[in-house]
Specification:
By secondary structure, the chain is α/β, with parallel strands linked by helices. It folds into two domains: 3-68, Ribosomal Protein L25, Chain P (Beta Barrel); 78-243, Alpha/beta knot, CATH 3.40.1280. 29% of the residues lie in helices and 22% in strands. A six-stranded parallel sheet has the order 9-7-6-12-11-13, with helices on both faces. Strands 1-3-4-5-2 form a five-stranded mixed sheet. The chain has a two-stranded parallel sheet with strand order 8-10. Strand 4 (48-57) and strand 5 (60-68) form a beta hairpin. Helix 2 (89-99) runs parallel beside helix 6.
Length: 251
């Protein structure tokens, strides 16, 4: 079943909503929607309703909303902070993070980040990342759209974190496997858990020391050195399995 977003209008049972103009071509020519076909419409904040196509024209597609769906959001407020990566690797990280249930993505510029941010490219890059989040959420039928922040420096991020838990996978750590980590409380009173992912060359010792001084917990992801994009997916999965909604439910 296809999912579409309408963040700019209230959604409720019995209402009729029009698909956004940007979705019309994709819905009619690519997805080939049919009259009375069931679809999902979400508000980007966690609410999704099932409805049926009641009008299908090139310039207007109307959906009658019929049933509200249960939330699929993780109870864990997980913020992913990945370092900038070369090529389009960060695009993959953002796509997978959206599917795995993070609530916010804050890209980082670190000492070994590739590429360094260039003038005039930030708006275009941020727009692409938001589009990736939107497409990924629609693909996995997630009604919540994670926020994508502007690129932060490590110091800027630490200034905003406050008393929240910070977990940092680090290839030099030998004592604390993330799979066995038991923080005091990863999400007290709704506070976020921040998960930082280093660049291809890893965090520098100086950056790790700065993170430790701000309460961060360095961890390892096992005996092998993982690529940054692989490490991000592995770490998110472990965190969500331990404190989010990927754990196997008993009974």
């Amino acid at each position: 079943m296809h999912l579409f977003f309408r963040e700019d209008c209230p959604l409720k049972i019995g209402a009729t909503v029009a698909l956004a103009a940007d979705d019309l071509k994709h819905a009619s020519r690519v997805l080939r929607l049919k009259p009375r076909e069931e679809v999902l419409v979400a508000d980007g904040r966690g609410l999704a309703l099932r409805g049926k196509v009641i009008k299908l024209e090139p310039n207007e597609i109307l959906i009658e909303l019929e049933t509200a769906l249960p939330s699929t959001e993780s109870p864990l407020n997980l913020v992913l902070c990945p370092s900038l990566l070369k090529g389009d690797k960060l695009d993959l990280v953002i796509r997978q993070a959206t599917e795995l249930g993070v609530t916010r993505i804050t890209p980082l510029i670190t000492a070994r980040s590739i590429p360094q941010p260039g003038k005039g490219s930030d708006d275009q890059r941020h727009k692409r990342w938001r589009a990736i989040v939107r497409a990924s959420a629609a693909q996995c039928q997630r009604a919540f759209l994670p926020a994508v922040d502007p690129v932060h420096t490590l110091s800027e991020l630490l200034h905003e974190v406050g008393q929240c838990t910070i977990i940092v996978p680090w290839e030099e750590d030998q004592s604390t496997p993330l799979a066995t980590l038991k923080p005091r409380e990863p999400n007290p009173e709704g506070k976020a858990l921040f998960l930082l992912i280093g660049p291809e060359g890893g965090f520098t010792p100086q950056e790790i020391e700065e993170l430790k001084q701000n309460g961060a917990v360095p961890v390892n992801l096992g005996p092998r050195i993982l690529r940054s994009d692989t490490a991000a997916a592995a770490a998110i999965t472990l965190v969500q399995a331990a404190w989010g909604d990927l754990a196997r439910k008993e009974g």
